[in-house]
Amino acid sequence: MEAKRRRLSKSADPVTPPRTSVPDGGSPKTTARSTRSATSMAKIVEALREELSSCELEKAQKSLGYLKKKLSSKISVSDFMRSEKSFPTLITVFHESFSKLNDTKAGDSYAAILRETISVIANCCHLSLESCLRLKPANAKVINSALRILESGTRTSWTLKACVLRLIANLCEHKETAMCVVEAPQLVDRIAMMVSAEDENTSKNALRIVRLLSSSFSRYVVLSNACHYIGQLLNKVYYEDSDPRKAAILAVLQTLSRNYARDVGRQLAAGLSADDASPRNCTKDFLALLLRDPTNSLSETEERWVALILSMTLCSFELREIFGEDAIREAVSIEDAFKNANLCKFLSFFSYDAWGRAKLRESGALTIILQRLDETRELDERDVIVSSLRHFIHDTIGMGFLLKHSIFPTIALKHLREYLKNRSYTCTPELKAEDDLSDALACVTSAVTVSLEENPSSSSERLRKEYTTEPRSPSCNWSPSMSSYSNSLSPSPSSTSDDLYSLNWAGGFDNDDASSRPSVGDRFTLSHLSFNEEPTSKKLNKEEQAIAGEMFILSWLSHEEVNHKYLINQEIVSALVGYISRAPTLDLKAARSLKRLARSRACIHQLLEIRFQTIVVHYLLRQPCTLVRNAKTCDRCDKRMEYGREVLREFSTHIDSEFGWSYLSQSLKSSNKQKRLSSYLAGLILLRSGHHRKRFMQFFHPLDELWEYLSAVLKDKNAFEEDRLAMEPPLSCQLLVALSILVTSFPSLSEENDILEVLPKFLVSEDKCFVESQDDSVPTLKFRSKQGALLATVPKDRVCSASEYFRGMFGSEFLESIENRQEFVFDPTSEGCDESDFTNFLHFLSGCRQKRCFSVTSAKRCVSLLYLADRYLCSELSKFLLHPKIGSVKTLLNGDNLQEFLPVCLSISRIDQQLGKMCMRTMLQFSSDAQLTKTLETLVGDSRGTELFVRFLKDFLNRYERAWSS
Question: What is the DSSP code string of 579-637?
């Protein structure tokens, strides 16, 4: 064991501490042995000091060798440290021998003594922390001497330098003493230079120091430019797998690149290319590792090298320049290169540089990257590629290539569809409490009245409620009319800096604190609207980052007007609107891109062709909470509607001008019926000025052709099916939604404003059941089922009073009156309801108003009671059900059950006026596209029902039509 320690010391290799440990407490015999050992070694040190003083250098070398043999274990070093004078004396020997290195006669002998002294001190520091701590007070002088030795060049041997580096490495094993080393930056710099030394032992010890410091003092290592010399060493040892320095280099670079990847890459690149004449340059081997066929699995070490290369290539443009254009050309030449994930990542990093983007585009590597983006299902890989492609915003030609000559838009839309399929968010409407309904209705009514009285023309210049109301902020006096027709396609300076440099560049989340009224020069931002739905500190997951990055690229493409004709197509616009409407969080960058497209004056004809206004209305303005009567206000839906109104106003500004009117009028005169109908709908939605509305209604009579088309579709089953399959949403639904613009534009004309102030007498409940408590002296009527079971016994007088049918039956000379008929049999088929609904009806006829006797809790029962009220001429029940304030129809009627109420409206002539208005309003204002289609299906093939339906719809919209065109 002692011989092995000697051999390690002479070669300046680190000494491995033995596994044995010093016991906490020992026997007297052990203590005595330790004392004798300490005394013996103290005598050796004193003798060494005397021999050095008397210049007996050979004896001094022998004493050092004997002492070195003694201090070969942790126990012996511990015994040696018991003496207070031994270790300081050894330090003194170090300084004396160092001071006499330049002695012309005995310089070599002093150098040998110094080397052995350093070796002994290094052994002590390696085996005992106490030795390191005792050396600490003298560190300044020791470190200065070590620095002078390392700087001495050829005047000192490589062996002495290796010994000094080994001593420093042992000091760096402990964080307490490593601080003294890093506080001497010149020493750290010199150690870094020794990494690429010609002597292998010197290089190993220097690299060991760098590895030890990199874990806790990585900043000092980076500042010393150590990676530059590691790069030089790497060119030498990368081809020798048996050299332990290769594994140490990998560990050092991985540790340093965690926090300083850019600096490490820069220094490493300089080191790798320091000697261009050298035939050895491991960058080619790095590239070969990346180009390897992905079917051949890599070893664990090779995978670590690949990960390191990718991380540093990402952060260091110097390293990318070393690989150069040749790396891109070699990558492109490989067959099926897009199947190699590491290679595609590597190629994508070249997009960070201007020359790299140009080379990727020209060589075809960009197509390979996009193919990989399309194929991969790994979210981390997708995020890396998309983040790299984001830098093409600095390359106008490259962005044009992505849009016009690549599959990027198709890939982005595919990913967006997959994301929305799994992460789509649909708001669940919540109904208001009954106490809130009357207050809300009163506020709305009063607000509308004041608005119309103060500015009677304002309602005709705006689209009210869900569609194009002005922003609610009273301080926001900006309007799209302030925008010029020219396309200012660059964002505001603040918007640009946010897009490129903010941490939330992909998500586009705006802070509430930044919400303010936009200036005239900042018209592309929506900063005056509060769109925050989640804190900006929320970290996006990988899929959200990738989707937001792709939307960011599409958004940036919209800055250039020449790109608009490629972006404005049905698929891209629908996807953007769907993303804005259905994504869990509103992405303002995608929203702004849609607004820029709406402002594109040069592409008005394309926007009209793809029915841009229909897409915005159906998917942004018709949010779930707005399609439910008496639903609570939803911040999420309100934000999207507010933005939808902004977009629609921008587009309307172009259409509602002489320039836009020329395009619209050409479409209105088209011989293509579908195109002409779509133009009619566009005119109803987008025209705002009075003179354009008048010309539109007087010259083209759009409603007449719309009525004709709707009638034709509903009367023919095949035509309805073709309409349903031709587009999404069907043209019949688009027609009804466009007509709803007329209704929502003039809330003051609503029939719901005619509210009765005093409740009728029949609405006052009486705490008594007239069916159960019968007086034998009172004439009654009995109603039985077909099986003979008694359903109810009701007072005859009350029934005749409430029902004109029974009053006429028993008040005239009909057969029932002549025969004094007192029992009736209930037939569910002829009555069109079940026994419970009919019994409920009998309770109402008897005057019962308690909930346990008479209640309307479902649409089915409400429909049945409407039929019974008409059949038995009970006007009180009809008025009760159709009361505009507390009526059951108003409470229960919605888009889901409209198909049940509509047949009642069409078949009952006595109450069609009030019920028809409620059904038409529900259809136009509170029904989704799917509900509209389902409702229209009930009319398909029914010519008479279709005619009645169209007539009701005409009558309902008549006053709105006059107001809109006036």
Answer: HHHHSSS--HHHHHHHHHHHT-GGGHHHHHHTTHHHHHIIIIIS-GGGGSTTBPP-HHH
